[in-house]
Amino acid sequence: xxxxxxxxxxxxxxxxxxxxxxxxxxxxxxxxxxxxxxxxxxxxxxxxxxxxxxxxxxxxxxxxxxxxxxxxxxxxxxxxxxxxxxxxxxxxxxxxxxxxxxxxxxxxxxxxxxxxxxxxxxxxxxxxxxxxxxxxxxxxxxxxxxxxxxxxxxxxxxxxxxxxxxxxxxxxxxxxxxxxxxxxxxxxxxxxxxxxxxxxxxxxxxxxxxxxxxxxxxxxxxxxxxx
Length: 227
What we know:
alpha/beta; six-stranded parallel sheet
């Protein structure tokens, strides 16, 4: 059991930030920066990296590295300023699961599409930030499928331990989380706390589907024994 590595997604998995307020904040930011080329209302955020999302939101302007970095910096600054505690909901069982992994000495980290600073802004508002020492983030690659390899390398350095790809368990709430696990030959647990239903997630064949992470001493204990 101690040789496994768990990687948690953030949005929809550990916590959720008000979708409407996030959309409104980003729309206002794009308007302020005169980035009106793209109709952002049709762009999906779920399960994607911030690098990919903002590339779509910015349209042709995203091709200019300096401009992209400016927008990224402004977004992170505005997120840190604007997010309030009532924007953030920690999902049931998350604190239990983190505590259980800690007690059982099971290594864990993050695999998220968020820019790193944005990830920790959200985690701080949920009082979860102090649990995570490493992760793979949406500023490191636009393609979510590239993130498990990045997290894998960081985990081996952080824990001074070797993990096989099959040792890695990705917990997320979208088909893209399942897809990136499958792409890397890792295992995947899908949770229905995000925008996708059990039926929608089941079509992508995760190894386990949960309605919440409550009682990890049962579902996670059993999963690790058979994984």
